[in-house]
Amino acid sequence: MKISNQARVLLKSQLQEWELAEKNYKGLEGVRTKAIQLPGGSKVEVQYNPERMRSSAAKVDAKSIQARACFLCEKNRPQEQRGIEFGEKYTILVNPFPIFQEHFTIPCVDHTDQLISVHFEAMLNLAMKLDDFTIFYNGPKCGASAPDHFHFQAGNKGFMPIEADYRKGDFVQLLGEKNGVQVLNWNNYHRGIITLDSISVLGVSGVFNQIYDLLAVDQNNGSEPMMNILAYSEEGRLIVHIFPRILHRPDCYFAEGDKQLLLSPASVDLGGVFITPREEDFNKISKNEIVAILQQVCLDEKSTQKIIGTILNKYIWTTQ
Predict the structure, then answer these.
(1) HSE-up (13 A, CA, CB side) for residue 232
(2) pTM for the whole thing?
(3) pLDDT tens digits, residue range 231-241?
């Protein structure tokens, strides 16, 4: 049985065995959504999902992390939670606080920091093997609610608008090819994205390492460069969307009164589904707030285009 089917069998059994998971997946039936069109023609979905308050409002400072038990370590997981081994280093678990109809968390067996560099090839292999799902990575300062324990997440494909937008190609521009990897950027999407498309795991990994090194030099903060990553496979090709970040949470997250929007963007938001755990935020958020949030937390399109030009060893003129 392929791994995607094993994961679905796990989800079905966990919903029968685990009351919390059953309650929260059933709660998705009542989740409200609305579509918002942004300037330039792209669209995002906004989801009102109160069960995601735990993630959106997570305290990820060192003191708060030290004060709680790691909920991804096997010894601290709920008794009802079971998993599927992926290789020797990872376990596929049902996420009990879902955004997707099929939502999994994939932690490392070892308690090790949320740093992508040594795990990126595993992410690509997951995308190839767990091929009905999109794998995503939230950096330690980019939406990860457990920055002390390395993990991926996975959700059923077709949920995030970026997947259909990439397939249609309306906002995407192929800028060149490196080591058998197509390298593309996005225009009029209000956040800088570097997309890699290839049949080669090693090719994608090699180009990613160059991007990682360039971002690390630009940020110069002594730790992992801020980023979110989506990876999935289609017809044997790996597609990876990299979102370089410049800020963890937008100004509106810390605002007071009516100006506050409790929204902490991570991979799913940048993929086009904004998660609002409070109903008042769902009701009032508009295209202006969404564009402002994206521009505050993401590297801009021109800067990502410059990075691509460096990777391809050529200057790329921008039309913006």
Answers:
(1) 23
(2) 0.93
(3) 999 999 999 99
